[in-house]
């Protein structure tokens, strides 16, 4: 049964909402969202939503068009929960899907048939654990300026893999995510079996993102709380490791406006902003003692970002405040929030929850960000001001201590 409704969320006019709801499984949990703003002659402004049953044995994909919010354009049924989805850039009718059982599949949404174009079920490189993220990545073809596209996936089996779809799904491993020495040593003390110890040497790859202009450079976040900067040219070692997080990484994104800046969120309750040359985060955002499940950059404002915990939606504007979000909303739902994305061509926020709903929040009266300052410079200024304020506090404390002693 499909239904749509529109209503006010709260007393101000900052957010309004539309709810997309599709009963695809009896206990369907919404797992992931992706958007495509240009699909050629087929249709424009598509929203693909991945679902999974609570036992992970069933999954579904619904593809919605903004031209028809009553019914999805396509519905695909799968034999495993969907964990990640992404539209192709060069061929936007192709939708790549990562599954809980470790498989990867590609669908052609232009076709009215629900058969997969290609999948990795019988591949020797099939992941042995859930595919937590996958993306289409543009790659150079030899020495020409022509670019092709591959699928890159990160999995709980500790591998970051690249897949070509020219002849079925052919794979190479870009990186095996070795655990840190400290964790390896603690695992060895537990006298694990040899096979278990072999598996445990690799850390689950939870999320990744490729550099906006350097196609061989990417970041990958792990269950250890580490962010590794890697190169497709070197699969034996990390170029750099960023270590400030104290819990599992859930989301990791380069800034669409400044390629020296990236952002991450974690189960340690924090959102952190980083610059490429520093291994310590330049700014930490925290508004609650809850894991931050997902984040996204605004496609139109360099200082605007969104985030979700299990029960709260947050909008942050770095130009306004780094202590608190400019907007914080707790939706009146029974389930938990699971996914968040900015719409590409409108002032809208797409939020998924564990009850299988996608809520489209139309944002109003959100303060605009200045366009005359680079994001990296903004972050450096914020950090400098924070250090100066900390210095004033320290000096004041020392002065008070001296006065007390005298």
TrEMBL record:
Mapped WD repeat ranges: 242-284, 285-318
GO biological process assignments: cilium movement
Keyword Repeat: yes
Record keyword Coiled coil present: yes
Subcellular location: Cytoplasm, Cytoskeleton, Flagellum axoneme; Dynein axonemal particle
One cellular component term from this protein's GO annotations in UniProt: dynein axonemal particle
Keyword field: Cell projection, Cilium, Coiled coil, Cytoplasm, Cytoskeleton, Flagellum, Repeat, WD repeat
Protein name: Dynein axonemal intermediate chain 4
Taxonomic source organism: Hydra vulgaris
């Amino acid at each position: 049964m499909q239904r749509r409704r529109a209503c006010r969320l709260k007393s101000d006019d900052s957010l309004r909402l539309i709810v997309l709801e599709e009963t695809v499984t009896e206990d369907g949990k919404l797992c992931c969202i992706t958007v495509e703003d240009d699909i050629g002659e087929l249709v424009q402004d598509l929203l693909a939503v991945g679902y999974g049953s609570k036992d992970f044995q069933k999954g579904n994909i619904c593809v919605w068009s903004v031209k028809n919010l009553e019914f999805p354009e396509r519905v695909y049924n799968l034999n495993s929960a969907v964990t990640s989805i992404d539209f192709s850039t060069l061929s936007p009718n192709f939708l790549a899907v990562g599954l809980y059982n470790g498989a990867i599949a590609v669908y052609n949404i232009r076709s009215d048939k629900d058969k997969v174009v290609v999948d990795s079920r019988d591949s020797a490189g099939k992941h042995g654990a859930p595919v937590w993220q996958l993306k289409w990545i543009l790659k150079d073809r030899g020495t020409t300026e022509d670019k092709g596209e591959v699928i890159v996936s990160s999995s709980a089996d500790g591998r970051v893999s690249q897949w070509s779809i020219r002849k079925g799904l052919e794979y190479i491993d870009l990186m095996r995510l070795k655990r840190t020495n400290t964790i390896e040593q603690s695992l060895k003390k537990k006298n694990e079996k040899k096979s278990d110890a072999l598996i445990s040497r690799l850390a689950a790859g939870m999320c990744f993102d490729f550099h906006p202009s350097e196609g061989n450079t990417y970041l990958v976040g792990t269950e250890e709380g580490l962010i590794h900067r890697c190169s497709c040219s070197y699969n034996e070692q990390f170029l750099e490791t960023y270590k400030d997080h104290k819990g599992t990484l859930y989301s990791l994104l380069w800034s669409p406006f400044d390629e020296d800046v990236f952002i991450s969120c974690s189960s340690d309750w924090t959102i952190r902003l980083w610059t490429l040359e520093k291994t310590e985060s330049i700014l930490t955002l925290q508004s609650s003692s809850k894991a931050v499940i997902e984040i996204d950059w605004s496609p139109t404002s360099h200082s605007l970002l969104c985030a979700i915990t299990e029960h709260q939606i947050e909008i942050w504007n770095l130009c306004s405040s780094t202590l608190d979000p400019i907007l914080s909303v707790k939706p009146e739902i029974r389930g938990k929030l699971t996914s968040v994305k900015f719409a590409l061509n409108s002032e809208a926020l797409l939020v998924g929850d564990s009850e299988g709903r996608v809520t489209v929040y139309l944002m109003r009266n959100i303060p605009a960000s200045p366009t005359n300052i680079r994001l990296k410079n903004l972050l450096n200024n914020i950090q400098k001001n924070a250090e100066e304020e900390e210095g004033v506090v320290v000096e004041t404390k020392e002065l008070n201590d001296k006065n007390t002693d005298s």
